[in-house]
Specification:
Layout (H helix, E strand, L loop, with lengths): L5 H8 L18 E2 L11 H19 L4 H25 L1 H20 L3 H29 L5 H19 L1 H10 L8 H8 L10 H12 L3 H4 E4 L5 E2 L3 E8 L4 E7 L3 H19 L11 H16 L1 H14 L6 E2 L12 E5 L4 E2 L3 H6 L4 H19 L1 E3 L7 E3 L5 E3 L5 E3 L2 H15 L3 H10 L9 H17 L7 H14 L6 H20 L5 H29 L10 H19 L1
Parallel strand pairs: 6-11
Antiparallel strand pairs: 1-2, 2-4, 3-4, 4-5, 5-7, 8-10, 9-12, 10-11
Helix pairs in contact: 2-9, 4-5, 6-7, 6-8, 11-12, 15-20, 15-21, 16-17, 17-18, 18-19, 21-22
Length: 582
């Protein structure tokens, strides 16, 4: 800041405060009285104007990344990272692409043979081009991926390279990396592990920027709102960072502050990604199973929702209301007098990560019980509430000292319409009843098939795939393996992942990952089965009562009673009661 000396600037970032010994003998990071911060002593107009100019300068520096030569350099930089990653993944799955190319070449040759000799010669030339392309890919594969013996080592190096590049490119790409870090169906395991580190390990921005942002947003001096402040962030994420503080009323709080000029950063990066997507759309083979433009539109919508901290606070309030009858679930309180769209102040939660098995054991808390509670909360969110926390990674879930499960960071939430919930319940009926034909129809009803495709042509393929998994005992069905099989089908046939399922799949795969860490014997379907039945019976029973009463009262608008479905529901209810009584 303009009026600060070098010593004062350092004091804002890391003041020289004597350490206090904690109960465990280690020196805890102390909070500092805010009235001692140099920024709190800015009271003259010149000083306040200098603070505003400093923040504006920092934000304009962000905008300049996307103009002139710097803008072109960023386009080249982003394109190079995306291109190298795309090439690497293509080479990693080259056998699958090669099979598709040969199958396509055979189909072309059959067509040519029905036409003219010249067409056949043309296809032979096409075959020669494919042969040269194949040899080139094998050389590139050897260079980038190495031999089978050192493939895993090279994957780990490439994964670290990608993580570092995404951090270098900034918040937009860190968020994309976080999403990719949950997609074990799309990336090799070393990539999933490396990108998973993006959840908590992101470089923080300077305190002086954060404090200037707080004062500008709240319209008050920092010492007027907070009594004490910890000067090292407890967490730094892609969109902002979190500090521990204390209010004048004594409550310990977490203060989340947004990164400088995040809006300009997201807007500039999305424009670059649109240009890359437009280029990709010129080549249909790059677009067979991915709607890049559609994915960008969805990301644009979700990232702006996550950037609004006031909306995040409202999401937390709604989640707390949904779980008000659950004594074992906690949602931090939001302090609205110190919250805006770019600053969020909430109750500070002390606890242990759900995957920290040693600390949980030291507190005599069983990780398996925590995991079962977590699964049960998500089935309630998905099947009952229609509103769910869409980012359940271990950094957003803490087990409090009294055993309660605390949820926080509600920037990313998903919503499920009653119609979609009903279709999901239908699918559960078919899974429980081991009905592959019903599941195939469910995928069609849930909009997994691309528009204009004849459903009868692909239904047998889906039925055959699910017959294998449904012949297994439920405890032997692995969600990730099922996802891999679905990925194969979606590559070869005209299927797509609907946008309203993106968050659901992300949450379920993350939950399965947490479950495997906390319990070696964990199986998602086996664990979820009794709770899914419980919530399904409650919802279906409520809907049936409404229809039945409407019929008795002569209100025909309530719909027809599906007696076959009702009989299945009754049998399931009886079995559930009998199992409970054992």
């Amino acid at each position: 800041m303009k009026d600060l000396t070098k010593e004062q600037r350092l004091a804002v970032i890391e003041p020289a405060t004597p350490a206090r010994n904690g109960a465990n003998g280690k020196a805890p990071r102390p909070m500092v009285a805010t009235e001692e911060l140099p920024i709190s002593k800015y009271v003259t107009n010149d000083q306040i104007i200098a603070e505003e100019k400093f923040l504006a300068k920092k934000e304009s520096e962000v905008e300049r990344r996307y103009t002139g030569l710097r803008g072109w350099f960023r386009i080249v930089h982003v394109s190079a990272v995306i291109g190298k990653l795309a090439l690497y993944l293509y080479l990693d799955q080259y056998e699958m692409h090669r099979k598709a190319q040969l199958r396509h070449a055979r189909e072309r040759m059959k067509t040519a043979e029905r036409l003219t000799r010249a067409a056949v010669y043309g296809e032979k030339l096409y075959g020669i081009r494919l042969w040269f392309f194949h040899k080139t890919m094998l050389l590139l594969r050897r260079f980038f991926l190495g031999s089978e013996l050192n493939r895993e080592v090279n994957q780990e190096k490439q994964a670290v390279w990608l993580k570092e590049k995404l951090i270098e490119l900034g918040p937009t790409f860190i968020k994309i990396g976080q999403s990719m870090g949950t997609r074990a169906d799309l990336l090799p395991l070393p990539f999933v592990i490396a990108l998973g580190e993006l959840q908590d390990n992101v470089p923080p921005f300077d305190n002086e920027i954060a404090f200037a942002r707080i004062e500008k947003e709240l319209g008050l001096k920092i010492n007027e709102v907070y009594k004490e402040f910890e000067l090292k962030p407890v967490a730094a994420a892609s969109l902002g960072q979190v500090y521990r503080a204390r209010l004048h009323t004594g409550e310990e709080v977490a203060v989340k502050v947004q990164r400088p000029n995040l809006e300009a950063t997201i807007k500039g990066d999305l424009e670059i990604l649109r240009k890359v997507a437009d280029f990709a759309e010129r080549y249909p083979q790059l677009n067979e199973n991915a709607d890049w433009s559609g994915m960008l539109r969805e990301f644009n919508e979700t990232i702006h929702e996550e950037m609004d901290y006031a909306a995040e606070g409202q999401n937390a309030e709604r989640f707390r209301e949904n779980f008000k009858g659950w004594d074992n679930v906690h949602v931090p309180k939001i302090y609205w007098n110190a919250t805006t769209s770019k600053v969020l102040t909430m109750e500070y939660i002390h606890g242990t990560k759900v995957t920290d098995l040693e600390r949980l054991a030291a507190q005599q808390i069983a990780p398996e019980k925590v995991n079962r509670l977590l699964i049960r909360t998500y089935l309630k969110q998905l099947l009952e509430d229609g509103f769910f926390h869409a980012d359940p990674h271990p950094g957003n879930l803490l087990v409090m000292p009294d055993g309660r499960l605390a949820f926080f960071d509600f920037g990313m939430v998903g919503r499920i319409s009653p119609e979609l919930q009903s279709k999901m319940i239908d699918a559960f009926f078919h899974v429980v009843g081991k009905d592959p034909a019903g599941i195939a129809q469910d995928l069609i009803d849930l909009d997994f098939l691309k528009p204009g495709v004849d459903a009868s042509a692909v239904r047998p393929v889906v039925e055959k795939m699910f017959e294998f998994h449904l012949n297994l005992k439920l405890k032997d069905v692995n969600f990730k393996e099922l996802t891999y099989d679905l990925a194969d089908v979606m590559y070869d046939y005209p299927f797509r992942l609907p946008s309203n399922f993106t968050y659901i799949m992300r949450a379920l795969m993350t939950l399965e990952g947490i479950g495997i860490i906390t319990d070696p014997e964990f199986n998602f379907f086996e664990t979820a089965k009794p709770y899914a039945k419980e919530f399904m019976l409650k919802r279906e029973g409520r809907d049936f009562r409404k229809i039945f009463v409407d019929k008795l009262m002569g209100r025909e608008d309530g719909g027809k009673i599906d007696w076959d479905r009702t009989w299945k529901l009754a049998k399931m209810a009886v079995k559930t009661v009998l199992n409970t009584g054992k």
